[in-house]
Write a structure and sequence with these properties.
It is globular, with a radius of gyration of 23 Å. Helices cover about 25% and strands about 25% of the residues. With about 475 residues, the chain is an alpha+beta fold. About 40% of the residues are buried. Helix 1 packs parallel to helix 11 and helix 4 crosses helix 11. The strands form six sheets. Strands 5, 13, 14, 15, 18, 19, 20, 21 and 22 form a nine-stranded mixed β-sheet that branches. A five-stranded parallel β-sheet has the order 7-2-1-11-24, with no helix packed on it. The protein starts with a strand and ends with a helix. Bound molecules: flavin-adenine dinucleotide (FAD). Flavin-adenine dinucleotide binds next to helix 1, helix 2, strand 3, strand 8 and helix 11. The site of flavin-adenine dinucleotide (FAD) has 41 residues, from helix 1, helix 2, strand 3, strand 8 and helix 11.
Length: about 475
């Protein structure tokens, strides 16, 4: 039996280990190394690391569709992908303290009023419940420990030596090595730079990646209610095949919807999240309008440069918008992205749809821009901004009360990690067929696909060890 080392106790790594021991693979031949904590010690603020990784403290929405959450079907076809995702969902229910409370929402019909302007992606979502994820994690961890799986916690892997089949990890001051016959690399988004390092050090060929960039759109929820009633987390989409561009609404938040500022590589972009507690209700809706652009040379560098151009360092009014009397109060200079709303009164430059506030009651950090600033944004997007503006124009037709009652935060960006070229049957690197990439470290962007990739590799290992 081969000795398996899994880097990352995230959704992908944990599902891989589970598939192995469920099928009789000896647990004491499996070692999982993670830089976070076990589920008993993991704190809520440890969002990305520890048992079940980013999935452990996530929204717990298990999407069930081959075109959501990253790539699975491209490796094994749609039917197999769905079967693998089923296994992941079953695991979440299996370790759930109250499996009967796992709800499935499954909108089935595309409403006529959004046609012909948009398609609406309809797919089932299993709602595990964020609160239960902690309990699921403990039950799941206990099961793997009982089966003899070994864990190293607070242990950061700092290097891999594929020719020598060895990994080096660090637990504070102590450095240790672990030998493997087979390595599963599932470091998720928190290990994005480490993944990049491994790919570069080993000259691994990578798959070309598209650019994913756009804006975070925000408006009062009432304008979208008709669609929210059909699909809470609606996903509008459209494709311009010949131009290599597709657009989708991304991560829709309602009821208590807040825009969040993200910092990556020293620049700012926007995202959104929803609060559950009624006290946070603001009756707003926000979602990303994300463009996927294919065929851009060096997409990562292209996105980085564009993001860096739509930033501003300026004084931002404490309580008011550009042109209002509050402007200039509490004058602290800071860097942030941009906010544009078309809703103006007669006095040119006065924006009436102000930015919203965070759940802590502070104004979202973004610099107001007017039509002149928007023209600069269009220039920076090199012709691609028109797709976003057309998307908004068509939303105004589909949601007639929307009009100019909206604002957008610029930019929203998804930096896709470089994806190593792998053998589609094993997810192993071309030059090292015993090093398998899985989860967000490969091409997943969600729980079910990450878990499915881990399971897929485990199935290969089981067959290989028969
Ligand atoms: C706030 C939030 C909410 C989300 N909500 C949802 C949702 O509702 N539905 C959904 O489908 N997806 C959601 N996601 C995305 C989802 O969590 C991820 O796609 C999924 O967890 C990826 O699984 P993974 O196993 O690839 O990586 P992760 O789950 O991120 O696990 C990676 C693990 O690797 C470890 N690691 C990283 N580097 C090293 C290293 N050098 N050495 C040792 N260990 C290392 C980390 O500690 C971590 O535990 C959410 C993500 C976040 C951040």
């Amino acid at each position: 039996m081969e000795k398996i080392v899994i880097i990352g106790a995230g959704v992908a790594g944990v599902n891989a280990a589970t598939k192995l021991v469920d099928n009789g693979y000896p647990g004491d031949h499996i070692t999982i190394i993670d830089m976070g904590n076990d589920p008993y010690k993991r704190k809520p603020e440890e969002v990305m690391t520890g048992f079940m990784g980013a999935g452990g403290w996530s929204d717990g929405k298990l999407t069930y569709h081959t075109s959501i959450g990253g790539h699975m079907s491209k490796y094994c076809g749609d039917e197999k992908a769905m079967e693998l995702m089923d296994q992941v969902i079953t695991n979440f229910k299996r370790f759930h303290p109250k499996p009967e409370e796992v709800q499935c929402s499954n909108p089935v019909a595309e409403p006529d009023f959004i046609k012909p302007y948009f398609g609406l992606r309809l797919f089932p979502v299993w709602h595990v419940g964020t609160d239960y994820l902690h309990e699921i994690g403990k039950n799941w961890y206990d099961y793997l420990c009982d089966k003899g799986v070994k864990f190293h916690w607070n242990a950061k892997v700092t290097s891999i030596d594929p020719p020598l089949n060895s990994v080096k990890y660090n637990t504070g001051t102590i450095e240790s090595w672990e030998h493997y016959d087979r390595l599963i690399f599932g470091v998720g988004k928190s290990g994005i730079d480490f993944g990049k390092q491994i790919i570069e050090e080993n000259n691994c060929p990578t798959e070309p990646k598209p650019v994913q960039i756009g804006v975070r759109f925000e408006a009062p929820q009432k304008h979208f209610q008709k669609l929210i009633d059909v699909s809470y987390d609606f996903k509008l989409y459209r494709k311009f095949e010949d131009e290599g561009v597709s657009l989708r609404s991304f991560c829709t938040n309602n009821n208590a919807a807040y825009v969040a500022l993200e910092e990556t590589y020293g620049d700012y972009s926007y995202n959104g999240h929803a609060k559950k507690d009624e006290v946070y209700r603001n009756d707003m809706t926000n979602f990303g309008i994300l463009m996927e652009v294919r065929g851009i040379d060096k997409p990562f560098e292209w996105s980085r440069e564009l993001v860096s151009k739509v930033q501003k360092v300026d004084i931002v009014p404490g309580e008011g918008a550009a042109g209002t009397r509050a402007m200039g109060r509490r004058q602290a200079k800071y860097k942030a992205g941009l906010y544009y709303s078309p809703w103006k009164n007669e006095k040119e430059g006065v924006i009436n749809r102000l930015k919203s506030k965070t759940s802590e009651g502070d104004w979202v950090k973004a610099h107001y821009i007017t039509e002149k600033g928007l023209q600069e944004v269009r220039d920076h997007f090199q012709g691609y901004f028109k797709y976003i503006e057309d998307f908004i124009e068509d939303m105004k037709k589909v949601f007639p009360t929307l009009g100019d009652d909206w604002g957008m935060y610029i930019p929203e960006v998804k930096y896709l990690s470089p994806e190593p070229l792998v053998d589609y049957n094993t997810l192993a690197l071309a030059d090292y067929n015993n090093v398998h990439f899985v989860g967000d470290a490969l091409s997943a962007r969600g729980i079910t696909v990450s878990g499915a990739q881990g399971t897929y590799v485990a199935e290969y290992i089981l067959k290989n060890n028969e």
